Amino acid sequence: MALPQIGFGTYQLEGEDCVNAVRTALDAGYRLIDTAALYENEVEVGRAIRESGIPREEIQVTTKIRGRNHGFDEAQEACRESLRKLGMDYVDLLLIHWPNPMNDRYIDTWEAMVELKDDGLTADIGVSNFTPKTLDTIIARSGVTPLVNQIELHPYFQQAAMRELHASLGITTQAWSPLGRKSDLLTDPVLVAVADKHGVSTAQAALRWSIQLGNIVIPKSSSAARIIANFDVFGFTLDEAAMTAIAGLERGTLSSLDPETSEVL
Length: 265
Ligand SMILES: NC(=O)c1ccc[n+]([C@@H]2O[C@H](COP(=O)([O-])OP(=O)(O)OC[C@H]3O[C@@H](n4cnc5c(N)ncnc54)[C@H](OP(=O)(O)O)[C@@H]3O)[C@@H](O)[C@H]2O)c1
Fold this sequence. Notes:
By secondary structure, the chain is of the alpha/beta class. It has one domain (8-247): NADP-dependent oxidoreductase domain (TIM Barrel), CATH 3.20.20.100. It has ten helices and eight strands. The protein has helices spanning 15-28, 42-52, 72-86, 106-118, 132-142, 160-169, 189-198, 202-212, 224-231, 240-247, and strands at residues 8-9, 32-34, 60-65, 91-96, 122-128, 148-152, 172-176, 216-217. Strands 1-2-3-4-5-6-7-8 form an eight-stranded parallel beta sheet. α2 links the parallel β2 and β3. α1 packs across α2 (42-52). The protein is globular and about 55 Å long.
């Protein structure tokens, strides 16, 4: 099954707020839900999906193996634990959340995931926050190319080199923080001008820009109105001048940790 161009991000959604937000997203038409063991909301995501009444096979669920569970046996157990929490037999996409290259256990983790896919516990496998070096290592060691690399990507950090590398390897780019959380992106005057010209919100302009580059976006919101509006990005196209203007917003700095040098457990 092909991945939708937009999914719903669930980082920082907890408890009933998470259940309600995921239900709203599913009602609005999202069919890709992005969670992670680290987010501690897999139970709620699973409940929202069951309560939606939408057949399981029509929804794609992504979860992620966190840093403290790197290692062959640890990763396999972590996947089973995520499935128990989600109340599911399988996920659609299992990612390594963060490479943690200094301890090198991401290679064993990846090999465990190849087996989990063969065993049907996940329909596909990918990675997140992988760099050219860590991508090259897992592909060389296992002969298996990740379906997806989920990376920070928004108009302030556009990841041109990684997008080019992904295209050459046949890897799909998923954009996390597509609205530039932790920044003032949504009030940037350049984005405001683009949005006004197209009669859309700045959030819609940012999402549409990323989709037109070929990325999958996974915006998060806790507000029903914003969840619905963020999904409404297929009825307009940004013109060339708008794409060029947004390209000029690049700042060249990650808003989060550098995956080459930092560890996330
Ligand atoms: N793999 C990784 O390492 C990684 C890292 C970070 C994120 N992610 C994934 O990517 C998803 C999205 O990233 P993110 O949550 O960091 O950031 P994001 O989606 O870029 O931004 C979310 C923020 O924007 C606000 N927002 C949402 N829609 C809006 C709108 N239409 N107008 C104004 N503000 C709006 C939200 O506030 P309200 O909730 O109040 O609407 C929230 O504060 C995450 O939820 C997670 O699933 C993955």
